[in-house]
């Protein structure tokens, strides 16, 4: 079953009086339990596509469907889809510096509507899964880069969102730590039957992927 | 319980939090102290009216306030005494007199004079001495606050008032006029003899006490009918008139409002600027909130909660500082009175203004693009 489907996605930005087309008719589909890598050089449209698939940006034309439901184009509807169905992992981690590892995960669950003890237990469960059970009360400043990214992975996986989108998750990590994080990420996504799309420059990510997509100048190559 | 991101962000940067709370506390202190001094001054302006056990005050026509009395024939008191429902009525003389200090300097003194102070329970706070002794000679009671202006004095000391040597036979407390001039209490006839040019056969006020159960409106109407060239007030009306005179005629009211306005402005600027800076510094975090499915409302609630926490902490500190200033103010003969209603209004105002300050950041939050979380 396809968790994510994109049909004929285009995106054109207006820069002053000039229209700058970035994506040209992208079609893709990712199934539950599938790990897909999206590669491409800088400026190829990777992040723009990820933003559209993540319901952060609206396409100029085309349609995104998540779990067979078309995503509306107003901010409230898109926020609702993000809340219910999508987990994000960012290159910069984007953890809340004032929250501990557990609170970072728990806050994301609160946003998704899970509160109280249930949220706390779920946060602790995913932190255990990523191997940070003993670091759950640490602030991000007291964690290494790899540990921060594992917290980010835990945050994305918490709440059982069917679709996980990761933007350059290994870019700020050394190769050894990056490989560890990817391995954990892949195993958990597989175990919990999540659809995982990783946008990256890092060719090592291919090794954990079921499928590799390449984008160049706003067009998917294969 | 949900994770309290608002509180965590606010307390994470402790220095900024301290600055915010200090700003609010400064504004609150400014407002409360100014308000407290204002209420204190107005309290002094009417304290003798409120403490003297009279229901009705009769003044000469158009007397602006209790300190600026005009004279009228003292025999009018008999007309009042015979009004049905009036239990008792007496003349009350209130006038400024000059007191000569041992140094030779002259100062102003506010004199209250009656035939029988005791039955009017006046003065209300006697530290030593007996008002019954005032009739026995050239004696007077002086408020202890006079020491600040007149230098140290004690019972048994003599002072020269309008050229006559009078003995201090007692001390009172809290008896100060609006202008902080100390108040002295002396026998009615002695005061008349001292200020004979103005008050020979004349009085400044008639005060009346009604019999229990008497009809106040009927008594007032009858007194007004019998004394058409005087003004007749209930105690509360006369206190209000005296208070309003100072507020409306002297600019003190405007001064108070201006300071309160400036206090509010300082508070708003400090809180708005701090919250705005905090919002800008945490813009990426707020972008993350949006990216993981949060709405503008979620972020507004964070900012609003931070504003409320700042308001509560700032108000508490400001109120504590204001209370701490009370003894300091008393040392310079100023009363700082902070009634619970004023405190409640000030707290409500602090909350509202802090929330209003937070709204300046709402506009910025509404424009946060969650896509910024992908930027490096």
At the fold tier of CATH, the topology name of chain A is Rossmann fold
Total number of beta strands of chain B: 12
Give the CATH class of chain A.
Alpha Beta
Could you give the order of the helices and strands of chain A?
EEEHEEHEHHHEHEEE
What class would the helix/strand composition of chain B place it in?
alpha+beta
**Strands of the biggest beta sheet of chain B: in what spatial order?**
3-4-9-6-8-7
Word description of this protein:
The complex is a heterodimer of chains A (222) and B (376). Chain A contains six helices and ten strands. Chain A has 222 residues and is of the alpha/beta class. Chain A has one domain (2-220): P-loop containing nucleotide triphosphate hydrolases (Rossmann fold), CATH 3.40.50.300. In chain A, a hairpin with a 2-residue loop joins strand 9 and strand 10 (219-220). The two termini of chain A are 21 Å apart. In chain A, 51% of the residues are buried. The longest helix of chain B is centred in the N-terminal third of the chain and has 38 residues, at 14-51. Chain B is elongated, with a radius of gyration of 29 Å. Chain B folds into two domains: 5-44 and 251-374, no CATH class; 62-228, no CATH class. Chain B is an alpha+beta fold. In chain B, the strands form two sheets. In chain B, strands 3-4-9-6-8-7 form a six-stranded mixed barrel. A two-stranded antiparallel sheet of chain B has the order 2-10. In chain B, helix 2 runs antiparallel to helix 12, helix 9 packs parallel to helix 12 (340-366) and helix 11 (296-331) runs antiparallel to helix 12 (340-366). At the A-B interface, helix 1, helix 2, strand 6 and helix 3 of A face helix 1 and helix 10 of B.
Describe this structure in a few short sentences.
Chain A has helices spanning 46-53, 75-85, 101-111, 116-129, 145-157, 175-191; strands at 2-15, 18-31, 35-39, 61-66, 69-70, 86-89, 163-167, 195-200, 211-216, 219-220.
């Amino acid at each position: 079953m396809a968790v994510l489907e994109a049909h004929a996605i285009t995106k054109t930005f207006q820069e002053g009086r000039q229209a700058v087309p970035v994506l040209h008719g992208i079609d893709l589909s990712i199934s539950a339990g599938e790990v897909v890598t999206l590669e491409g050089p800088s400026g190829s449209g990777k992040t723009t596509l990820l933003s559209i698939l993540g319901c952060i940006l609206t396409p100029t034309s085309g349609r995104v469907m998540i779990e067979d439901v078309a995503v509306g184009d107003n901010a409230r509807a898109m926020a609702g889809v993000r809340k219910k169905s999508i987990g994000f992992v960012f290159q910069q981690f984007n953890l809340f510096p004032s929250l501990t590892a557990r609170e970072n995960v728990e806050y994301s669950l609160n946003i998704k509507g899970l509160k109280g003890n249930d949220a706390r237990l779920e946060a602790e469960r995913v932190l255990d899964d990523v191997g940070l059970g003993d670091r759950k009360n640490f602030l991000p400043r007291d964690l290494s880069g790899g540990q921060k990214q594992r917290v980010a992975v835990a945050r994305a996986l918490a709440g059982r969102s069917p679709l996980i989108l990761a933007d350059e998750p290994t870019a700020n990590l050394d190769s050894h730590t990056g490989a560890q994080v990817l391995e954990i990420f892949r195993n958990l996504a597989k175990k919990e039957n999540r659809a995982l799309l990783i946008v990256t420059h890092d060719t090592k990510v291919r090794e954990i992927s079921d499928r590799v997509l390449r984008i160049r100048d706003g067009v998917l190559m294969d | 319980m949900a994770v309290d991101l608002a509180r965590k962000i606010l307390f994470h940067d402790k220095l900024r939090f301290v600055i915010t709370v200090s700003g609010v506390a400064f504004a609150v202190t400014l407002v409360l102290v100014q308000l407290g001094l204002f209420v204190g001054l107005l309290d002094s302006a009417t304290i003798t009216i409120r403490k003297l056990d009279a229901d009705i005050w009769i003044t000469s026509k158009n007397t602006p306030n209790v300190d600026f009395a005009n004279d009228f024939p003292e025999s009018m008191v008999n007309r009042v005494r015979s009004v049905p429902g009036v239990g008792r009525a007496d003349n009350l003389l209130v006038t400024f007199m000059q007191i000569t200090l041992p140094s030779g300097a002259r100062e102003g003194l506010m004199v209250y004079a009656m035939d029988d102070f005791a039955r009017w329970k006046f003065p209300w706070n006697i530290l030593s001495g007996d008002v019954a002794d005032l009739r026995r000679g050239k004696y007077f009671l002086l408020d202890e606050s006079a020491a600040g202006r007149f230098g140290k004095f004690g019972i048994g000391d003599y002072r020269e008032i309008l050229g006559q040597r009078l003995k201090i036979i007692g001390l009172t407390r809290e008896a100060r006029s609006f202008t902080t001039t100390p108040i002295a209490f002396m026998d009615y006839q002695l005061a008349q003899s001292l200020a004979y040019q103005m008050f020979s056969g004349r009085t400044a006020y008639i005060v009346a006490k009604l019999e229990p159960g008497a009809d106040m409106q009927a008594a007032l109407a009858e007194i007004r009918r019998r004394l058409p060239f005087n003004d007749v007030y209930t105690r509360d009306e006369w206190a209000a008139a005296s208070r309003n005179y100072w507020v409306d005629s002297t600019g003190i009211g405007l001064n108070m409002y201006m300071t309160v306005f400036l206090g509010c402005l300082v508070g708003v600027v400090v809180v708005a600027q701090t919250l705005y800076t905090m919002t800008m510094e945490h813009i990426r975090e707020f972008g993350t909130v949006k990216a993981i499915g949060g709405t503008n409302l979620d972020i507004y609630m964070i900012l609003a909660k931070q504003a409320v926490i700042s308001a509560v902490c700032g108000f508490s500190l400001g109120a504590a500082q204001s209370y701490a200033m009370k003894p300091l103010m008393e040392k310079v003969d100023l009363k700082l009175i902070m009634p619970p209603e004023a405190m409640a209004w000030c707290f409500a105002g602090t909350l509202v203004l802090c929330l209003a300050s937070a709204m300046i950041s709402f506009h910025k939050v509404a424009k946060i693009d969650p896509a910024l979380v992908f930027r490096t």
